[in-house]
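Revision sheet: structure tokens.
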Amino acid sequence: MPDNDDMIQSIERVYAQALIDLACEAGQLDEVADEMAQLGGIVQKQPDLVRLISTRTLSVERRGQAIERMLKGRVSDLTYRFLQVVNAKNRLDCIMGIVNAVAKGVDERRGIVHVKAFMAEALDAQAAQKVAKLIETVVGGEVQLEQQVDPELIGGLKIRIDDRLIDGSVSTQLRLMGQRIVAGGRDNARQHLETLMT
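Predicted:
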């Protein structure tokens, strides 16, 4: 049975996909994607504002009036109407998740893949570009590489693409090698013991 977080993320994706589909039909995908990204920036800078307008102690009408005062004429009609629908469905508390889901969905349509690369030391621009190009040959699409330095790695890379982790770090390879040696030692000892007992 899905938990509450999974259900909320599913709702956010449904709203995001509906907006993306409408924006594509209207030929406004770039405009709407930009407006939602700007809205996300506002939400991150002023979380109290979102809490205020998403609170259920205010009526849908009052929240709708606040949205109208803040956004009507400042964003496309499509984005404005979408936000009013989100309000009418009492989902304004999910707005940041919807913004993130829109960004992800738009990137998927554009063939952009976000990849996190964990490494012992940051790569210079040329090396990072080579790594991104190499990953592109495997995953297809345009890779946007985000580097994260992890001093615990001896060398090599860990790469995260969505929920998949590809671990090519030296420390992990050494750990696996150690496990194989220990397992091999146990097998050898067992075989030697069996030989002695026969």
